[in-house]
Design a protein that fits this description.
Elements (H helix, E strand, L loop, with lengths): L2 H4 L2 E6 L5 H11 L3 E6 L3 H7 L11 H8 L4 E4 L2 H7 L2 E4 L19 H12 L5 E5 L7 H9 L8 E5 L9 H6 L4 E5 L3 H14 L8 E5 H32 L3 H9 L20 H14 L3 H28 L8 E5 L14 H11 L3 E5 L4 H7 L7 E3 L3 H5 L4 E4 L11 H7 L5 E4 L6 H7 L2 E4 L9
Parallel strand pairs: 1-2, 1-4, 2-3, 4-5, 5-6, 7-8, 9-10, 9-12, 10-11, 12-13, 13-14
Helix pairs in contact: 2-4, 6-7, 10-12, 10-13, 12-13, 13-14
Bound molecules: nicotinamide-adenine-dinucleotide and uridine-5'-diphosphate-glucuronic acid.
Length: 462
């Protein structure tokens, strides 16, 4: 039987990253009659997806890859051939903040999107549905359509917006049991037909009432706004943590009391060293740029303050370490517990740890960095400024001889370490700076540590 007979549709995803890889793994698992191929310009990434050591760490991912890879899930660098054969093309390429020219530092860099659109056009002889999975500025589909339908190519493309809301570390669960799926389309006969094709895929495992259909622009904008709202909650509670520290209120108690109001809700109110990850800052800045572009300066200022509070929170953390450790860190060893931007991922993109470590190194501290999954990325992030930095897998070894311990990522295993043993091996006085309010502070204090948390009064023997 030919391949055509085996599979009802061919899906191709451009971009084998944190979004493209896991989303296609889930679709391939849920839709055995679709052939799913993920393509990328990075040979290294594709080779890793085809190996036993996947390029990203995500709980549950490996088992699902093993189930379908080589059956209906394929990873390939042969972009042209796969695009030509595709019925539905998901675009999951990166859309980083532009770091050059007009809009540098704020606007989205859309070069990878444009390259993808041109490549699709070049390889298409049959109509295709193009699905925007990447996070894009509102009205990006218009640009994409202009490129795809330009020149003498008579092939018709229908563009859908289908933003991804999964979070790293819980990607598989978020995709298998999503809060909602959002599909934006044009309200035309062909737009609705394309939307129904995409609906057919999600309906294999998502209840219909969890699938929202909207117009294209609402869908594109909703993604930016969802991230902006989430980030705003974190900056809101972090701003209050600063007030707690000078008034002896406890930010966790405040968050709990406030979050019990069902109109507010309890999620995303964990104070910490600030949000990281590849998207919150990028998407907020993109929103700020869009508002400025449309001359909505007050709106831009509002959203920009969310980023400013986040930067301020990382500074406050470093300032607390410096002030507490007698205003000098020169040649003192600080153990850094956790480098990933959050637990259960090896991703360190825009991780607060990068900024915090850089500032500690400027103070000439020595660092011993430990993390269960992010050490190789940490090495890359600090390359060139890593004099005086050690990377150590074993947290007990990382803490040995340290004057201070700064917890930056709340890996669950850090809660069950033997802190008496850690205390005994550290220089005295021993300090713990819990940047995620993750540890049992009273117990640490009783062991002998001087404990500094976020938005809580310190527990100190000095
Ligand atoms: P990523 O950098 O991990 O992956 C993007 C991939 O696209 C890379 O492997 C890159 O080589 C490839 N690529 C770039 N240009 C290409 C081209 N012309 N042809 C083929 N491949 C190309 O990025 P990511 O984290 O997966 O994010 C992708 C998009 O999804 C972004 O817009 C991001 O904002 C959005 N998003 C990310 C997350 C997340 O948790 N990471 C969640 C939701 C949405
Ligand atoms: C976030 C969103 O949660 C996803 O819905 C979205 O799809 C994704 O961005 C994206 O567009 O990339 P992610 O960045 O993977 O997901 O992780 P989050 O769980 O949102 O955490 C982001 C950062 O906020 C982390 O550094 C985390 O430590 C921090 N955070 C989160 C807090 O400081 N406090 C909280 O209460 C929650």
């Amino acid at each position: 039987m030919s391949e055509k007979d085996n599979f009802s549709k061919k899906i191709v995803c451009v971009g084998a990253g944190y979004v493209g890889g896991p989303t296609m793994v889930v679709i391939a698992n849920k839709c055995p009659n679709y052939k799913v191929t993920v393509v990328d310009i990075s040979e290294e990434r594709i080779n890793a997806w085809n190996s036993n050591k996947l390029p990203i760490y995500e709980p549950g991912l490996k088992e699902r890859v093993d189930k379908v890879r080589g059956q209906n899930l394929f990873f390939s660098t042969d972009i042209d051939e796969n695009l030509a054969a595709a019925d539905i093309i998901f675009v999951s390429v990166n859309t980083p903040t532009k770091n050059f020219g007009q809009g540098a530092g704020k606007a989205s860099d859309l070069q990878f999107i444009e390259q993808t659109a041109r490549r699709i056009k070049k390889n298409s002889t049959s109509p295709k549905i193009i699905v925007e999975k990447s996070t894009l500025p509102v009205r990006a589909a218009e640009t994409m359509a202009s490129i795809l339908h330009s020149g003498d190519n008579s092939v018709r493309f229908e563009i859908l917006s289908n933003p991804e809301f999964m979070a790293e570390g819980t990607a598989i669960r978020d995709m298998e049991e999503p809060d909602r799926i959002l599909i934006g389309s044009h309200d035309t006969v062909s737009g609705n037909a394309a939307r129904d094709e995409l609906l057919k895929i999600y309906l294999k495992w998502v209840p219909r009432d969890k699938i929202i259909t909207t117009n294209l622009w609402s869908s594109e904008l909703s993604k930016l706004v969802a991230n902006a709202f989430l980030a705003q909650r974190i900056s809101s509670i972090n701003s209050i943590s600063a007030l707690c520290e000078v008034t002896e209120a406890d930010v966790s108690e405040v968050a709990n009391a406030v979050g019990k109001d069902s109109r507010i809700g309890s999620k995303f109110l964990e104070a910490g060293v600030g949000f990281g990850g590849s998207c919150f800052r990028k998407d907020l800045l993109n929103l700020v740029y869009l508002c400025e572009y449309y001359k909505l300066d007050d709106v831009a200022k509002f959203w920009n303050s969310v980023v400013e509070i986040n930067d301020n929170q990382m500074d406050r953390f470093v300032n607390c370490i410096l002030k507490t450790m007698f205003r000098t860190l020169v040649d003192k060893k600080i153990a850094i517990f956790g480098f990933a931007f959050k637990p259960d991922t090896g991703d360190t993109r825009d991780a607060p740890a990068i900024y915090i470590c850089k500032r500690l190194l400027e103070e000439r501290a020595r660092l011993s960095i430990t993390d269960p999954h992010a050490i190789s990325n940490a090495k890359k992030d600090l390359a060139g400024i890593d004099e005086g930095v050690e990377f150590i897998e074993n947290p007990y070894e990382a803490a040995r001889g340290a004057h201070g311990l700064a917890l930056i990522t709340e890996w669950s295993e850090y809660r069950s370490l033997d802190y008496q043993k850690i205390f005994d091996s550290m220089a005295k006085p021993s300090f713990i700076f819990d940047g995620r309010n993750h540890l049992d502070h009273q117990r640490l204090f009783e062991i002998g540590f001087n404990v500094y948390a976020i938005g809580r009064p310190p527990l100190t023997h000095i």
